[in-house]
Amino acid sequence: MANTHHQIFIHSIFAVKHRGSLIQQQWKADLFAVIGNLINETGCKIIIANGTEDHVHCLISMKPDISVSEVMKNVKAKSSKWINESRFLDSRFEWQSGFGTFSYSKSQVPDVIRYIQNQEEHHKKMTFVEEYIQFLKKFEIEYDKRYIFKMPE
């Protein structure tokens, strides 16, 4: 849309179904590249994607005419399809339903990039669930602990 100006930085976090440790080192970088390309295909711009064996962090420069939910739906569906078609795993790969998304100002972007770059080191001290709950508390988001990336029954 002409004369529309924006600056929207979103940090999205999503997990492997049941928080399984399925993202393997040998194809992890390719997965993050695929995720980045899928985000760029929406017209948004990937700044960084990184994570560990059980979850992914993405910092995205959003466009105002697409919702975060649309972007995440596209990324999660097409990246899980890519993983399954690549036959990296003996079983079917799925992402957990839902995601977390948090907004930042331009001045905070360098810190968020560093945080996402250092995921491996960060998770030597804290589990993914502890990290996720810390985000919810930091951003003052109400939640029910029973539904934080629900485990199988």
Tell me what you see in this structure:
Pfam families: Y1_Tnp. The chain is of the alpha+beta class and 153 residues long. It has one domain (8-147): Transposase IS200-like (Alpha-Beta Plaits). It is built from five helices and four strands, in the order βαββαβααα. The protein has a four-stranded antiparallel β-sheet with strand order 2-3-1-4, sandwiched between helices. Strand 2 and strand 3 (55-62) form a beta hairpin. Helix 1 crosses helix 2 (68-86). The longest helix is centred in the middle third of the chain and has 19 residues, at 68-86. The N and C termini lie far apart (47 Å).
Main traits of this protein?
single chain, alpha+beta, 19% strand, Transposase_17, Transposase_17_sf, IS200/IS605 family transposase, transposase activity
- Let me know the number of strands: 4
**What spatial order of strands do you see in the largest sheet?**
2-3-1-4
**Count of separate structural domains:** 1
Radius of gyration from the alpha-carbon trace, in angstroms: 15 Å
Residue share in helices?
Answer: 25-40%
Unreliable sequence segments: none
The chain-level structural class is alpha+beta
What pattern of helices and strands is seen along the backbone?
EHEEHEHHH
The CATH topology corresponds to Alpha-Beta Plaits
Question: Which range does the strand content fall in?
Answer: 15-25%
CATH architecture: 2-Layer Sandwich
Q: What is the CATH C level class, in words?
A: Alpha Beta
Q: What's the CATH superfamily, by name? A: Transposase IS200-like
